[in-house]
Amino acid sequence: MPEIEPKDLSLKTMKGIHLWHAPLSSCSQRVRITLAETGRTFESHLVDLEAGEHASEAFQRIHPNGVVPALVEDGRLYIESIDIIRHLARAHTALSIGDADLLALADGAQVDLKLLTFEFLFRGASPPTEEAAKAFQRNHKNAKLKQFHRDFEAGFTKERLDHAVRRTAAAFNVLDARLADGRPYLSGDQFSLTDIAWMPNAHRFSLMGWPFQQTPYLAVWFDQIRQRNSYKTALMDWQSEDVAGLFKSYTDARQTEGRDIHHYGGLS
């Protein structure tokens, strides 16, 4: 459902493109990359996820699920990243959907991406205060998201992490098989939304030290994708050096302890 009726009626008066997003949100990255690739400018509305701003009443009147991103274009509200990038691409004939099956696969992969990101990257950050955690549980209306945070605080089971790693590896194998015929992009000769949908995932797993050497065609694709200007302006420029350093330190520490992503799901 790409377009919804906003509860905050002030959104209907907005002109141009307005984007509610977070710097490290992979779904926000998809939308920013699409905007960059289509040459669209936007009014930025940053949502501080660490501070729990997505649990505020004001934001949940913008996005009923209390997650990012949300996009308003000339008073019309769009949610869900795949739906948003499809919407943006319709007005730009040079950017096609690409492979609908791989686009759907990217959409489904978000559950595992989120789980593994929280375990292998975000767990290295300082946890929220007890007061902040309680406020989030009290104010947020998304039951699944609240349960996810409770599970994260309690610690994900190894079985759950193993399943997520195996599903991720299977998805990357699908992409690698598509690229094995020598095509430069996931859907063929032309860069498309399919590539955009997978760009944040490949970047995120590279931060975790994912063994891309096991999917050599995908590794070549990723090396090529990283040269695009949109990768820099819409993804890397929103990732501070401090955050990148924290991720690397945590990943290195887990690797030394034998607890990094290689030790789950049969990767090693």
Brief overview:
With 268 residues, the protein is of the alpha+beta class. It contains twelve helices and five strands.
Fold and architecture overview:
The chain is an alpha+beta fold and 268 residues long. The protein has helices spanning 26-37, 57-60, 81-90, 100-108, 110-120, 130-139, 143-154, 158-179, 193-207, 216-225, 229-234, 241-257, and strands at 3-4, 17-21, 43-46, 70-73, 76-79. The mean pLDDT is 96. Helix 8 (158-179) packs across helix 10 (216-225). It has a five-stranded mixed sheet, covered by helices on one side. The chain contains twelve helices and five strands. The longest helix is centred in the middle third of the chain and has 22 residues, at 158-179. The chain is 51% helix and 7% strand. The relative contact order is 0.14.
List the helices and strands and how they pair.
Blueprint: E1 3-4, E2 17-21, H1 26-37, E3 43-46, H2 57-60, E4 70-73, E5 76-79, H3 81-90, H4 100-108, H5 110-120, H6 130-139, H7 143-154, H8 158-179, H9 193-207, H10 216-225, H11 229-234, H12 241-257
Parallel strand pairs: 2-3
Antiparallel strand pairs: 1-5, 2-4, 4-5
Helix pairs in contact: 1-3, 1-9, 4-9, 5-8, 8-10
